[in-house]
Sequence to fold (69 residues):
Amino acid sequence: MSVINYPLSNVQIELMKLFSTNLSDKELIELKDLLSRFYADKAISQADAIWDKKGFSNEDMEKWLNQNS
Fold:
């Protein structure tokens, strides 16, 4: 068995606490969905910030989408 030579992060500790319970299949799917939405929302927020910083518009997006049409 491997020995971990570094401390666990706060997220890892909380997940270990959560995983000590036995979730139903439905609850496990709900948890996966929740985590997916959490990271998707973070990615969207970062993309929106870059979009605003660069000053892009909906017209720019339309041009990019139709470049090879």
User: Anything to note?
Assistant: The helical segments are 10-19, 25-54, 58-65.
